[in-house]
Design goal:
There is one protein chain. The chain has 175 residues and is an all-alpha fold. The chain has eight helices and no strands. The longest helix has 18 residues, at 112-129. The radius of gyration is 24 Å and the shape is elongated. It starts with 8 loop residues before the first helix and ends with a helix. The relative contact order is 0.12.
Amino acid sequence: MPLGPDIPLSSKLAVLLSRKRGADGKTPSTRAIAAATAETPGGRPALTHQVVNDLLNGVKTNPSSAQLAGLARAFASPVAYLLPGYNGLTSLSVYEEYQDAREALRLIHDLGEAGAAELLEAAREIRLRHGHRDLNVPEVPEPLPPATEPPRPGRRRRLSFTEAAERAVSDLEGT
């Protein structure tokens, strides 16, 4: 498989982070991501939150294989996607998730380009049969649209003199 353009690890992590929004629409903190890198729940994380932060910001660009495996666990993505040149998140996910997809690739291994072309044509026909008219599947699935974050609790912003006067009148009148 020819390698694609070199997309920085921080950009790949940004894509994965945007896809990992919680039910409240917020992305997880670096501490939560670091905790999710552990091999077992509650186990020792493969990365500290500072290393996660450095990787997300592009400060650190060459993590160890253990750190890559931890990141893949935290983001539920294939490890290969985090390697330089491997940009097809969709195809790598299918390859890792479905044994039959790996078997199909093994079966056409020695058939060359003709076998790959036949498999591709069969896959297009299957998509059409299943009602998927769009045969253009992106390398990286589109991230979920960003949810609007609700205002965070905290100190209210300072009011101008006019705003404070209006609020005082409103409070006195009970409206």
